[in-house]
């Protein structure tokens, strides 16, 4: 049973560019959330998707947007990249009716130069 | 205000000994959940243990146990019989609100554990 898978694992962009990160949830899961983890810090919640709609959003600017597809997979898009966007981006999935455990992927490490 | 506080940036523990990682939390919601995750250098967040606010007994999962003191708002993780593979960053996190609904996790800053042979 595949867990949460993310792609790409590493990528390098320059300031002002745009990036798309992808996530496939664990089988049977219908809810996907994204977290940003800067170096040496704990993850910060970006947003959560369920039924292809954004359900909750953290304190992130509109440059951060997302999408959930009918097969429950998800994308995170970041426009107009800043140096401060360099971080590990973690995707997590769960079944909405579950007891609450979130399963995380290994993340996409973004470096902005 | 910080919702999750982990005051130990780093800890060293001898192999086969136990180690306690501190976590205090702040919430006014009567329904919440507390999680501990392990993050090795690969980056993946590995779920270790969960404690619901209404659970009467402390949670245990193998070598991991959670010392839940509700009145003190603390949820310390105890790792017994440490192994070299336990060397990693450990995060305490909290979910506010009811299970099964839309929620987010608030994470602490983490504690780095290094197990010595």
Describe the fold and architecture.
- The complex is a heterodimer of chains A (113) and B (117).
- Chain A is an all-beta fold.
- Chain A has no helices and eleven strands.
- Chain A starts with a strand and ends with a strand.
- The relative contact order of chain B is 0.33.
- By secondary structure, chain B is mostly beta strands.
- Chain A binds chain B through residues 31, 33, 35, 41-45, 48, 50, 55-56, 58, 88, 90, 92, 96-107, 109, and chain B through 4, 33, 35, 37, 42-47, 50, 52, 91, 93, 95, 99-110.
Share of helical residues of chain A: under 10%
Main β-sheet description of chain A: 7 strands, mixed
- Approximate helicity band of chain B: under 10%
- What would you call the structural class of chain B? mainly beta
Draw up the topology in text.
The complex is a heterodimer of chains A (113) and B (117).
Chain A: E1 5-7, E2 10-13, E3 19-24, E4 31-37, E5 44-50, E6 53-57, E7 64-68, E8 74-78, E9 87-94, E10 103-104, E11 108-112
Parallel strand pairs in A: 2-11
Antiparallel strand pairs in A: 1-3, 3-8, 4-5, 4-9, 5-6, 7-8, 9-10, 9-11
Chain B: E1 4-5, E2 10-14, E3 19-21, E4 24-25, E5 32-39, E6 46-52, E7 60-61, E8 64-69, E9 74-79, E10 88-96, E11 105-107, E12 111-116
Parallel strand pairs in B: 2-12
Antiparallel strand pairs in B: 1-4, 3-9, 5-6, 5-10, 7-8, 8-9, 10-11, 10-12
What features would you highlight for this structure?
heterodimer; A: 113 residues; four-stranded antiparallel β-sheet; globular; B: 117 residues; mainly beta; 12 strands; 0% helix; 50% strand
């Amino acid at each position: 049973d595949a867990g949460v898978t993310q792609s790409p694992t590493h990528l390098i962009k320059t300031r002002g560019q745009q990036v798309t990160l992808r996530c496939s949830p664990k089988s049977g899961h219908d809810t996907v959330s994204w977290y940003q983890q800067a170096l040496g810090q704990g993850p910060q919640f970006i947003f959560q998707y369920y039924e292809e709609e954004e359900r909750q959003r953290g304190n992130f600017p509109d440059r951060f947007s997302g999408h959930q597809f009918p097969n429950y997979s998800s994308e995170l898009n970041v426009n107009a990249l800043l140096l401060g966007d360099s971080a590990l981006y973690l995707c997590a999935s769960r079944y909405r009716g579950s007891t609450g455990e979130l399963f995380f992927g290994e993340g996409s490490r973004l470096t902005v130069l | 205000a910080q919702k999750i506080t982990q005051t130990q940036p780093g800890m060293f523990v001898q192999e086969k000994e136990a180690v306690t990682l501190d976590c205090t939390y702040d919430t006014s919601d009567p329904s919440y959940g507390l999680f501990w995750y392990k993050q090795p250098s690969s980056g993946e967040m590995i779920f270790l243990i969960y404690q619901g606010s209404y659970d009467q007994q402390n949670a245990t999962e193998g070598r991991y146990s959670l010392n839940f003191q509700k009145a003190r708002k603390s949820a310390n993780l105890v790792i017994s019989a440490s192994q070299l593979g336990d060397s990693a960053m450990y995060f305490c996190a909290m979910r506010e609100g009811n299970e099964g609904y839309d929620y987010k996790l608030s994470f602490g800053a983490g504690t780095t554990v290094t197990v010595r042979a």
